[in-house]
Amino acid sequence: MSGTGTGEDLGAQTARARALALLRIRSRATAVALLPAAAAVVLFAAGAQGFADGSGWNAARWAVTVCAVAVLLIAAAVAIAVVRAKPAVSPTVPLSEAAAPDLYRLVRDLAERLGVPAPSAIALTPDCDSWLEDRTHPAADRAAREAARRDPSGPEDGPKRASGRFRRVEAAPVLVIGSPFLWWMRVAELRAVLAPVVAGTGPSAHPDIAAARRFVRGLDGAVADAATPVRGPLRSVLRLPRAFIGRIARVLLRSCRSHATEMERGVAAAASTRAQAVDYGLRIVAQEQVGLAYAGWDRLLTRVALPAWRMGRWPSQLDVGVVSALTELSRRDRLAEGFTSRLGERPACDLLEEPGAADEAASLLAARLFHGGPAETGPDWAPVDWQQYPDEVVDRKWRTEAARLHRVLDTMGTPPATAAGGVATLARVVDHLAAGDGSGEELAAGISAAVARDEALAQEQAPQPAPGGSGGTGGRGDDVLDLWGPDPLPLFPLQPPRTGTELLADHVAAMVCCAAVDTAGAAPGLDWLDGPALLVDGERRSDLGGPVLSLVEDGDAGPLRTWLAAVGVRTDKPVRLV
């Protein structure tokens, strides 16, 4: 790999030196495994030449031979485990060249300008990041191809409008691109952001670095496989050998950790230095869009997508949604002024033949990663577009929470607020909280317990993944999430735990919104940055939080009654619940 500057030379040299150190660890482990066998050969040769005669030497020869056979068997078992292990593969949506010829052309032109090999394939990930992923390990390559054939989260077996052209998995290195980047960034910005990533194929092509990476990934896969519970009739027999092999692989992996880290740092430094020759000035500007995309994506997932996932619906156009969220953020935030002027340029998603199908597949994968939904769609797990979101998600969420609130009031023995007993009214909730005497704390505790029960019940009723492993004796399966490693969910907590008072405020607000829809002609809506919204005369009302908190925390119903009168909500009218 020829360097274009001192920084690249130093980075490449560091990476190669660390790769050689990793290969030396592999060689030393092999030498240790062969040492008893070599000693046995020497003892037998000495005996044949008459230099080691006698019963003591005979006993030593056979003892060393037995030890050598045992060590060789253990070494062979570890080697087989490393070779057959399935290293973690990031869950992605494979994108074939037929599905994105312009994107492949852009990446190849970029690799040619950088003077590095082009990635052999491109995949999308529902995250704001991009990287190169090595899938040259034999087991990983076989498993990834099998996952592409079986996984229904891809566009062919999942959403019906998707095309089967997204389902091919190529050999490594694979360029993984964050799907939000394609929709928010312009073509030139995407090229500038991908330059340092694509430049990493240069160091990756070096045989020493490639061999070292395969060794480390094999060890990592062996450790993960050993930690996976064994299934099948042989589980009691295989448990101890797998644990022993996993311990040996863990020791080797621990000795490789520092060298592997420094090797990857050297590769990154070399790639970064080489990429400075391509679109360096534009990359500095494009990095601002990376941070903005990450903020908008996180907000969209936590405020908009998560309520839908919890209702059994997954938004099928998350990448389109992030553009709307970031456009709204640009309108509200003066620091983001000028960003919307970029929207007149060609978006990077135009490089795809079927951007809608790719968005749908990435959206389903996001739901599976961040919420744990099943791969198959059905009545309890169906896609929803943004036009249906207010009715399918927002209204249903409000009425579900309002129904839970009244169930808790029933268990507390709270009487109805009107003579028409048995109907749900907003007056019942307001009168109960305004009565004081610790009623708010008791109701908040009841809501917390009810939410916990409902979440536990939903977890029990969630579809369980099929047992993995082709042989039925354990190991990770061939699903796209199983390839990521054992127990990959959840990635991170999308929301911090809510207190009882916060949950009660949410439920009271939901009851108010239901009453506004049923008695005042309001409508459920969608705010791209804040999620569910109440629309009154077509305008979003964002001033409900304060009056609700006054009622929940202080028992003061005055601000809420004033708000209800201004909107025209009738508290004595029945409200439809789920």
Listing every helix as H and every strand as E from the N terminus to the C terminus, the arrangement reads: HHEHEEHEHHHHHHEHHEHHHHEEEHH
Mean pLDDT across all amino acids: 82
* Count of beta strands: 9
The geometry reads as: flat
Spatially, the strands of the biggest sheet line up as 1-2-4-3
**Low-confidence stretches at least 5 residues in length (pLDDT < 50)?**
1-5, 150-171, 465-478, 486-493
Number of contiguous helices: 18
Strand content: 5-15%
Question: What share of the residues lie within helices?
Answer: 55-70%
Q: Could you give the distance between the termini? A: 65 Å
Structural class: alpha/beta
Report the biggest beta sheet as strand number plus sense, adding barrel if it closes.
4 strands, mixed
- Rg result: 30 Å
